């Protein structure tokens, strides 16, 4: 059942990206985003075996604007790292590594909206769950995909 759901969501995201003539990073974000979000929701982990290759692939896709991509990664990832250092229970190390990778595709004016939107998605997950820990990875992935595609 999970495979059918995964394929359906992926097909839907790719269709939206295709209709909107989205950049190639949208397709990569859709695939990695679904897989990483499912893993994070189920296991509260974002494995390096997926986050690091995704970040590298996104950086390669943004090679035409390398300076802006590296700056976006440094700012977006750096802010998440600062939160991790300030309040370790609030954010995991996987979220920080994910934020560095996702920052490569976010234009500088989109960094603040990405942070706000990802926090809103995480808050909605927390309201739906009502207790316990809530992963921030799905919020980061959903916000980044939406801002780069729509």
Structure, described:
By secondary structure, the chain is an all-alpha fold. The mean pLDDT is 92. The longest helix has 21 residues, at 66-86. α3 (48-61) runs parallel beside α5, α4 packs antiparallel against α5 and α6 packs across α7 (137-149). The chain has helices at residues 2-19, 24-43, 48-61, 66-86, 93-103, 111-129, 137-149. It has one domain.
Approximate shape: globular
Mean pLDDT: 92
- Kindly give the count of domains: 1
- Strand residue content: under 5%
Organism: Lentzea miocenica
InterPro entries: Prepilin_IV_endopep_pep (IPR000045), Prepilin_peptidase/N-MTase (IPR050882)
Keywords: Hydrolase, Membrane, Transmembrane, Transmembrane helix
Domain Prepilin type IV endopeptidase peptidase: 28-127
In short:
This protein has 150 residues and is mainly alpha-helical. It has helices spanning 2-19, 24-43, 48-61, 66-86, 93-103, 111-129, 137-149.
Spell out the blueprint of helices and strands.
Blueprint: H1 2-19, H2 24-43, H3 48-61, H4 66-86, H5 93-103, H6 111-129, H7 137-149
Helix pairs in contact: 1-2, 2-3, 2-7, 3-5, 4-5, 5-7, 6-7
List the main descriptive attributes of the protein structure presented here:
150 residues; mainly alpha; 7 helices
